[in-house]
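Example 9 (inverse folding). The structure is encoded as follows.
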């Protein structure tokens, strides 16, 4: 599966200004933020370094180039960014081979969006190889489009992934609801002009204009997402 698909055209649910829902993956739909940190800790332990737990808040939600680069600089590990990226992706794939837990409310929300034919996209900073593995648990049929971090020139916190997704779906970014779990992802969605639902996974996120913060996806349904459009 690739992120290059024909535009679907602008489609709106009857009586609603909501045109599409764009969803982050790690920490939002699947409970994997802890997986990534465990893999990072294991890889660096093999290199002779111990990660400071406070760094977890720095690396969460960002592209691998940023998080891996930070950890190399912070530890002084003798490894290149390219070498580390390979080790991290391999370690993560091994982890998810043992089972991939969905976040509470994720399966119900995806099913509801599909039942009402709401155009939905998965927008992640993870690489394509990781997304395609995770899609087996999420159900690829739930997404009209998926965007990987290694398929855009600038990934989160830049707006490019969300602008790409909106264009691919043929919708107005301002009429899109984005669901994110990190400040990095929220920044990307807001820069794209979307309405944002923040469901913090590791670090707290404060409410702001065009941003609604909830504690769980179990609080998010189609009625809730449609209601966000009146806030813009």
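The amino acid assigned to each position is listed next.
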């Amino acid at each position: 599966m690739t992120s290059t698909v024909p535009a679907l055209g602008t489609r709106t649910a009857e009586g609603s200004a909501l045109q599409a829902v764009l969803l982050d993956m790690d920490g939002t739909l699947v409970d994997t933020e802890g997986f990534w940190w465990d893999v990072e800790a294991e890889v660096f332990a093999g290199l002779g370094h111990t990660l400071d737990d406070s760094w977890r808040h720095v690396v969460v939600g960002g592209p691998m180039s940023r998080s891996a680069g930070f950890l190399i600089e912070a530890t002084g590990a003798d490894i290149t960014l390219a070498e580390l990226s390979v080790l991290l992706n391999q370690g993560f794939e091994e982890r998810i081979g043992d089972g991939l837990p969905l976040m509470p409310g994720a399966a119900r929300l995806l099913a509801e969006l599909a039942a009402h034919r709401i155009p939905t996209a998965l927008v992640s900073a993870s690489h394509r190889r990781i997304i395609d593995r995770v899609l087996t648990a999420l159900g690829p049929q739930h997404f009209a489009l998926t965007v990987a971090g290694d398929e855009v020139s600038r990934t989160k916190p830049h707006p490019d992934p969300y602008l790409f997704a909106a264009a691919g779906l043929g919708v107005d970014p301002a009429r899109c609801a984005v669901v994110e779990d990190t400040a990095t992802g929220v920044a990307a969605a807001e820069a794209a002009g979307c309405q944002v639902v923040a469901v913090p996974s590791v670090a707290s996120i404060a409410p702001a204009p065009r941003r609604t913060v909830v504690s769980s996806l179990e609080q998010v349904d189609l009625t809730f997402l449609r209601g966000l459009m009146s806030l813009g």
